[in-house]
Amino acid sequence: MQRIVVPAGGIGGARFLRGLKRAAPEAEITVIGNTGDDIHLFGLKICPDLDTVMYTLGGGIHEEQGWGRAGETFTVKEELAAYGVGPDWFGLGDRDVATHIVRTRMLAAGYPLSAVTEALCTRWNPGVRLLPMSDDRVETHILIDDPAGTPVPAGDGGGNGPGDGGESGAGDDSVRRRAVHFQEYWVRMRASVPARAVVPVGAEQAAPAPGVLEALEKADVILFPPSNPVVSIGTILSVPGIREAVADAGAPVVGLSPVIGGAPVRGMADRVLAAIGVPATAPGVAAHYGAGLLDGWLVDTVDADAVPEIEAGGVRCRAVPLLMSDEEATAAMAREALALAEEVRA
After folding, report:
1. 259 pairs with which residues across the strands?
2. What is the Cα–Cα distance from 320 to 323, expressed in whole angstroms?
3. Which of 57, 98, 157, 328 is the one with CA 20 to 30 A from 77?
4. DSSP string spanning 94-121?
5. pTM of the full predicted structure?
6. How far apart are CA 98 and CA 121, in angstroms?
7. How far lies 345's CA from each of 222, 283, 341, in Å?
8. Mean pLDDT of the residues in the chain
């Protein structure tokens, strides 16, 4: 049985996984889920990316949104608003709240997040083994300019995380900055202001969750889906030991570009790519991961002229359709990724 490991974020990762299951129905698929998007609100532990994967593969996702539950209602949100309790920008649906209550109670009882995730998946039966990247708390924060904040000393990049390479503001003592949780930046602010740095808070002290390193070691193929390369896959790789395990794996590592024609397929990945100095292009993201991590890279047909540049950097590259317009189109993408992995292996 083929063993496939997929580090994955939210919507893009979840939809790719649905196609991968169709492309490789007999494979044993392990998903390393991003938990850097996790947030505590209303006394609840919320894991958006883990839940999006679980709901999407389990048949409970709101298909049009790509996140949240199908058939959702928002009575609890409306009642909280009536009491004047915020924040009002993060809308928890009633069905979704039940998941967060179960998770929060189990965590309070002493179960690690990996065990809680396994328990939640018994209801949804996603058909993959879903592992959080870590049982430890890691939260992605975004550094933004703040005219009312405290000046950042010249030469201080604001505490960038390892490898994030954010703007430093060096030489400008008037720069004032503050950090906001990724969810606030993405959901409330809609990435409307430039991101100056991306900081995976707590990552340096975190450890991979049980099963993560073992899955990577035993993998036949490792696939990077078209998830956000900075705040999804990048945050997963920031947990000590995971990047090294991917780089040292005997399995081929193949990624699919989340950027087509110089623009993200979904979301605002270009905003956080700019924060780490990476061009929002298919070759730019490939170079960001690097030949030390990637063996193969798929770009969309509109970026076919970038194939020689990417291969000159030591990564095997092919141009194929990469729009996940429906499940079959996504399955075709997954087949191309698996075929490139076999080509690299040979």
Report:
1. 264
2. 9
3. 57
4. HHHHHHHHHHHHHHHTT--HHHHHHHHH
5. 0.90
6. 14
7. 12, 22, 6
8. 91
Whether residue 128 contacts residue 13, with contact meaning beta carbons closer than 8 Å, is answered with no
By the 10 Å C-beta count (0-12 exposed, 13-18 middle, 19+ buried), 310 is classed as: buried
In the Cβ-directed half-sphere of 216, how many Cα atoms lie within 13 Å? 23
Whether 5 has a pLDDT exceeding 90, the answer reads yes
Q: Which residue has the tokens 């920031």?
A: 238
The DSSP secondary-structure symbol of 198 reads E
Beta bridge pairs of residue 290: none
Pick the closest to residue 293 from 253, 257, 256 (CA basis). 253
Query: Each residue of 18-31: b (16+ CB within 10 Å) or e?
Result: bbbbebbeebbbbb
**DSSP conformation letters of 127-195:** SSEEEESBSS--EEEEEEE-TTSPBPPTT--SSPPTTT-----TT-TT-BEEEEEHHIIIIISTT-S--
Q: Could you report the per-residue pLDDT of 92-145, keeping only the tens digit for each?
A: 999 999 999 999 999 999 999 999 999 999 999 999 999 999 999 999 999 999
Residue 20 in contact with residue 53, Cβ under 8 Å? no
The Cα 278–Cα 172 span in angstroms is 22
Q: Is 317 helix (H, G, I), strand (E, B) or coil?
A: strand
Q: Which amino acid is at 21?
A: K
Residue with tokens 């069905």: 95
d(CA 265, CA 262): 9
CA distance 102 to 99: 5
With contact defined as beta carbons under 8 Å apart, do 160 and 192 qualify?
A: no
- Which tokens hold the place of 92? 């928890």
